[in-house]
Specification:
The protein has 13 helices and no strands. With 235 residues, the protein is mainly alpha-helical.
Length: 235
């Protein structure tokens, strides 16, 4: 499928009710209002297509940009592409899902994650924390830098309550991910979760809630899923 064909099919799946939900979640125009389950019908036809994913993201249409992440080829996407995508992500569906998913699946996730969390731009810093979280969720424990990840937990504990709104949300998610996927730091992440307690995040006109890290990690342990790595970041 080419760009024109994909956009036409995306538009055919759009509906106003879904669009209103997305707008409430901070997604920006232009968009059609396409459910992810309908996007996946298109993904089944395309599989992965590096060139098309770049073209879709460049349209600025929020639905197309999200779809771009679903068909992106993590083996072909460049560091430059990921940096551009991160800068152009104009809602947290892109900055906290699409961009860090592909970054973590690529060979640049750890490197870019560390770089992005230093940004004063909320969306970029948020992408960084998520990329680092998924890096830990995907890679074997033996390939992770224990010292750096331990220091990152210290940083979250010290700064989370004074961080920017969505950065607080993604820092909290980082603690959950490390506690759930990175066994050498599960105990420390659990302690950090206790110390930071409940995190307050403005989720706008939505019913979204911030998960309590202590409870989330405990559920993972109780279910016997501690340390079970993910095959992919995107879902």
């Amino acid at each position: 499928m080419n760009l024109k064909e994909v956009l036409k099919e995306l538009e055919s799946y759009g509906n106003e009710a879904t669009k209103r939900v997305y707008l409430n979640h901070g997604v920006r125009e232009p968009l059609y209002g396409v459910k992810v389950q309908d996007m996946k019908k298109i993904v089944k036809k395309i599989k992965k297509d590096h060139k098309l994913s770049l073209e879709l993201y460049a349209t600025g249409n929020s639905d197309a940009m999200y779809l771009a992440g679903l068909i992106a080829d993590e083996q072909k996407i460049s560091k430059t592409d990921l940096i551009r995508w991160c800068k152009e992500a104009n809602n947290y569906g892109l900055s906290e899902y699409t961009v860090p998913w592909i970054a973590a699946e690529s060979k640049y996730g750890y490197e870019l994650g560390l770089e992005w969390i230093e940004s004063n731009i909320e969306s970029i810093a948020s992408s960084g924390w998520v990329a680092l979280a998924y890096n830990a969720a995907l890679k074997p424990d033996s390939e992770l830098n224990l010292k750096i990840y331990s220091e990152l937990l210290d940083r979250v504990e010290k700064n989370i309550h004074s961080a920017q709104n969505r950065v607080r949300y993604t820092m909290n998610g980082f603690v959950i991910a490390i506690g759930s996927y990175y066994v050498p730091l599960t105990e420390k992440a659990s302690d950090v979760a206790i110390n930071i307690g409940k995190i307050t995040v403005d989720v706008g006109n939505t019913s979204c809630k911030v998960p309590l890290a202590t409870e989330y990690i405990k559920k993972v342990i109780d279910k016997g899923n501690l340390g079970k790595k993910r095959k992919r970041a995107r879902c």
